[in-house]
Batch of 3 targets.
Target 1
Amino acid sequence: MSKVFSKVPSDHDSPKQESVDIDDIYDCLERFLNASIPVKGGGKLEVVCGLSNRTVIPTPPFIMIQLIDEEQLAFNESRYTSTHKVVHDFNKVTLQIDFYGKDNIKAHKMAKSFLIRFNDDWASDQFKTYQKPIFPLYAEGLRNNVFINSESQYEDRYVVTAYLEYHPEFGMCQESATEIIMSVRLADTK
């Protein structure tokens, strides 16, 4: 008869939780947009969040991002420490990105620049440098959407739909076993 011992690693041995939320997605996407859309004179484009920004839309050119859907891609994975259960979640988000252009940079040019670069492996390389578990999947739908401003003038506006995957982790306090001891008997080896 033999005994098998297994010990749970202590809390300080387990990896740190990956905390990522929609603000991180907006931040990473803003960084990507500024890296992928050339602006004359080397300036940065203003990037705003859609419905939740509580401000008047800026003067074009600018880009507006809005989360329009989120879905779970797979069942959660769990890992345990002596005091916590950590759940690793897998999600896909759908974002609408509105490009508002002006004479110095047209909306179509911005949208096309984003679409080509986001659908290239260059996007994965860029997102890797942001050090968050956020992964570009693909973008589609270069559409000219009519937008009439408060002065009854048509704005130069194109819309693209982008899809990203992200993997947040959530910790829950939980008492768990810290040690397992099993008695085992060797099988007959005839």
Target 2
Amino acid sequence: MRLTITFLVLILSLNSCNPTSKKETLLLADREAPLGWMYLRVYKDKTFEFESRGLERKGVIYSGIMELKTDTIYFKYSDSIPKAGNKAILTKNFVSYFNGTYPERLEIKKNNLKTD
């Protein structure tokens, strides 16, 4: 019994260490890439994560703060900027990056963003 309780406390402690698991997402978008996936997660506090994940490796996560004006999302990255760029058009079904090295289009799975 004591071992079971210790195990449960350990599991709960490990789950609480993941900060993104508690953040409420307002926007979720993704697409399958040739060798993995691309993900965009926007949180209620206006932070975001843009992730490029391969099939057999951990993904590269670009993060920062976003601002939505009308139908355009402006991404202010904390560090480096991905090749998709830092601006995207938001439509009913897609987030379409337009000012990077290549255009990127992610399909929206959830969208509760409100324009300012």
Target 3
Amino acid sequence: MTLRLGTRRSALALAQSQQVADALTAATGTDVELVPIVSEGDVNRASLSQLGGRGVFATTLREALLAGRCDFLVHSLKDLPTAQPAELVLAAHPAREDARDVAITRDGTPLGDLQPGASVGTGSPRRIAQVHRRNSRVRVLDIRGNVDSRLGRVRDGELDAVILAAAGLTRLGGDLGGLEAEYLGLSEWPTAPGQGALAVEARADADARLLDALAGLDDLDTRVAVTAERTVLAGLDAGCSAPVGAHAEVVDGDLRLRAIVYALDGAHRVGLDRTVRIAPLLPPDRGYGGYSGSGDGADAADGADPIARAARTGDDVARRLLERGAAGLVPRESTP
């Protein structure tokens, strides 16, 4: 038996999907073949701010899954809308990679020290706002493209810097071709909800043996953290590309969540930190298989479920951000 893994065709998508395929084969002995699929986001060259939260990187893949052209999918979690279709389940979130953003330059000049008029490339409204806050003197250019093409624009002198996800660079091998990286701390530069994490998605009615095998790839600390982050985004009614930074992690039995909502020009922001104790809820093996609920755990009713605790924390943070004025900063749009 060979399982079919649906994935986008980009080098990064293929690399991270192959990592999941290899891990599943190592755990089960089952062969996995990649099924490359072209998503709308791969052919639509509009700005991310225009594409919004319409699931342009996921919809075509999900259609292929539901049509039976593949058995499961691997997504970059930050690209997924927060509303989960009832017929699909997020079967696993493997252990998260580095969630930070990285500023890439030719000579290692820190982002905050770039000269007036220097050009910084990014297509993310959140990153654009954060760049403006870090260095209001630079020019931010709205760009799209794969990792190699963005690095090439810095190497060739077209741009002075680009902002990329550290996880993507790591999954592609980390070779910057002579460029320099400045890792941006998550305290002052929280990244997109789910950044650095993967989502392994299957049909809710898939064979129980497949769902069990995929569940074996799940990392509970990662699931707890991304549930909190994505619940913030859902509570704000903001799209995947909204100027919202949220990062959570489990540290010594505590769930620590930081969320910041930015004005599009970076001039204003509203932020909140929250720490809740979840240590008594975490099983020793850190597996998720013993918990019931939906694929993302957000509607779990069991008060002893750490996923439900994370969801409640994220929802509370979103509500408090709105009370503090975030509604006036975030372009409101549901993410079907």
